[in-house]
Amino acid sequence: MEHGENNITVVDENGNEQLCEILFTFDSDKFNKSYVLYYPMSAEDDEEEIEIHASSFTPSEDNKDGELAPIETEEEWDLVEEMLNTFLDQEEAEEE
């Protein structure tokens, strides 16, 4: 994974690259991991709901790129969902 300020390039299992916008990142002391929530930039053009992806994230030593890994446990998914709901609630409150 390579990343800029708000974008990352995600390479899927078939070697296809996809530019994604980072929605937000957060760290979890409980799991001792960092997480990133993102969506494909091509989805911005669609009028349908945007599919948000989440992965755990291990930054490289120089913070220029890093490794994405799948979220492995139901507890981690619960945490990610809770953080996403909080983020969306804050976004909605700011728009009002």
UniProtKB/TrEMBL annotation:
It comes from the Bacteria. Coiled coil: none annotated. Pfam families: DUF1292. InterPro entries: UPF0473. Belongs to the UPF0473 family. PANTHER family: UPF0473 PROTEIN CBO2561/CLC_2432, UPF0473 PROTEIN CBO2561_CLC_2432. This is UPF0473 protein CN689_25435. It comes from Peribacillus butanolivorans. The lineage of its organism: Bacteria, Bacillati, Bacillota, Bacilli, Bacillales.
